[in-house]
Amino acid sequence: MNELKVLYEDNHIIVVEKIPNIPSQGDKTEDRDMLTMIKEYLKEKYNKPGNVYLGLVHRLDRPVGGVMVFAKTSKAASRLSEEVRNKTMKKTYLAIVNGKMQEESAQLVDYLWKDEKNNTSYVVNENKKNAKRAELDYKVLKYDEEQELSLVEVDLHTGRHHQIRVQFSSRKHAIYGDNKYHGRGAGTGICLWAYKLEFVHPTTREEMIFEDLPEPKGMWKSFRIK
Q1: What residues pair up with 34 in beta bridges, in sequence order?
Q2: Residue 44 and residue 59: Cα distance in Å, rounded?
Q3: pLDDT, tens digit (0-9, with 9 covering 90-100), for 17-34
Q4: Residues 21, 27: Cα–Cα separation, whole Å
Q5: How far apart are CA 154 and CA 176, in angstroms?
Q6: Which residues contact 49 (CB under 8 A, 6 or more apart)?
Q7: What is the spatial distance between Cα 172 and Cα 15, in angstroms, rounded to a whole number?
Q8: Is the pLDDT higher at 40 or at 29?
Q9: In whole angstroms, what is the distance from residue 77 CA to residue 47 CA?
Q10: pLDDT confidence of 1, banded at 50, 70, 90?
């Protein structure tokens, strides 16, 4: 399983780098997914017979890569899921977006509605049925005048469907490489990366912080992401 990048592992959790364009868990495409890959890794590493338990506590969009934590026990899964619900698990992203942001840092608040049929979300009026409040904070780390692109750090406060992608795109700052939401650089891969994950360990109660930067290639390289 040399394709799996393990950032940390103990008896209760395993933290890995999700590979871009691989689903977090199995879906209707039946393509290879992270949950299955990690189960195979654990089965092989510990020579475990039968089915291996692995709890999925949060997800990343299929095209997005970065840090994810999985639970190796049901107790760990329950406690980590509670952190997600209570919003004490902190997720920070890097994104390269179109144009220059009007403000160097700001909070974006919208109401999003998911079109289940087309697997697409939209910014809508808060009174629309099934609309969900979406919040994030961002700060600009760098603006490339020549490319007319901005590197932003995003603190996600609500985990809505395609939230970061939709909120920036709705303001004419689509993420570079995001084909679904009108980003430039079609076919180059989306420049959205879950680079930092912070949570409390489910059993030791220790503060855990993991950082993992994207490979310095493509547009990431031009922004000197190391």
Answers
A1: none
A2: 24
A3: 999 999 999 887 788 999
A4: 13
A5: 15
A6: none
A7: 34
A8: 40
A9: 22
A10: very low
Tokens 């406690």 locate to: 79
What pLDDT digit, counting tens, does each position of 176-204 carry? Answer: 999 999 999 988 899 999 999 999 999 99
Give φ, ψ of 102 to 5 degrees.
Answer: -65, -35
Spatial contact of 42 and 54, defined as CB atoms under 8 Å apart: yes
> Which long-range contacts (C-beta less than 8 Å, at least 24 apart) are formed by 51-57?
54/14, 55/80, 55/81, 56/24, 56/25, 57/81, 57/84
Nearest to 211 by CA among 223, 226, 190: 226
Alpha-carbon Rg for the chain in angstroms? 18
Sequence-ordered list of residues with C-beta below 8 angstroms from that of 59, at least 6 positions apart, any chain: 24, 25
The overall average pLDDT reported for the chain is 94
pLDDT beyond 80 at 56: yes
By the 8 A CB rule, do 53 and 181 touch?
Answer: no
The three state secondary structure string of 149-160 is EEEEEEEECCCC
- What is d(CA 53, CA 35) in angstroms, rounded to the nearest whole number? 10
Q: What angle do CA 207, 76, 136 make, to 5 degrees?
A: 55
The predicted pLDDT at position 141 comes to: 97
Q: What's the one-letter identity of residue 149?
A: L
